[in-house]
Amino acid sequence: MDSTVSAYSEKLREMSVLSLICSCLYSQPHPNTFGQFEDMEVKSLNKRASGQAFEVILKSPTDLSPERPQTLALPAQKKEPSLGELQRRLEAAEERRKSQEKQVLKQLAEKREREKEVLNKAQEVNNNYSKMTEEKLNHKMELITENRMARLNALKQRLREKEIHAAEVRKNKELHTEISG
């Protein structure tokens, strides 16, 4: 049995993974088989530039000939874990759970902090915008008030000039009526 296991392990080292998968899926002999041995067959593949390619197919234990003695090792039975081992596993699981919980809480705290920063930044931008808008509005209102006052002053000035002119015209008329009459 040891020689078979060591032979298999040597073959496995030499085989590619693809060949191993193919041999597991297709355990029947192929038509282009190059050679057959006790527990494996060698199949020729298409020639490549680098030379001849071969595929090694291992036979399953059911494919082995009945005249060979089949001494397969039974899987080892699992022994029941001791109370101490169970306790250690439970403590390790509890530590992992606590660690994960801390990590999740830390991530949530970081997320909350980022949200606060974003909200503060948005509020600051909003306040700055409100201030600028208020300043622009106040400036516009001041300009409108100044323009109105300037127009009113100009109107008052024209009215004074017209009154002065009207007074001069009356005065001239009175002088003209006194002179002519």
UniProtKB/TrEMBL annotation:
Q: Which spans of this chain does the record mark as coiled coil?
A: none
Q: Which SUPFAM superfamilies match?
A: Stathmin
GO-annotated cellular components: cytoplasm; neuron projection
- InterPro entries documented for this protein: Stathmin_fam, Stathmin_sf
Q: Which PROSITE patterns does the UniProt entry name for this protein?
A: STATHMIN_3
Q: What ranges does the record give for the region Disordered, renumbered to this chain? A: 79-102
Q: Which domain of life is it from?
A: Eukaryota
**Biological process per Gene Ontology, one example term:** regulation of microtubule polymerization or depolymerization
Named from the GO MF annotations, one term is: tubulin binding
Pfam family of the protein (one): Stathmin
> Which family does the UniProt entry place this protein in?
Belongs to the stathmin family.
Protein's name according to its UniProt entry: Stathmin
Its source organism is Culter alburnus
Taxonomy-wise, where does this protein's organism fall, top ranks first? Eukaryota, Metazoa, Chordata, Craniata, Vertebrata
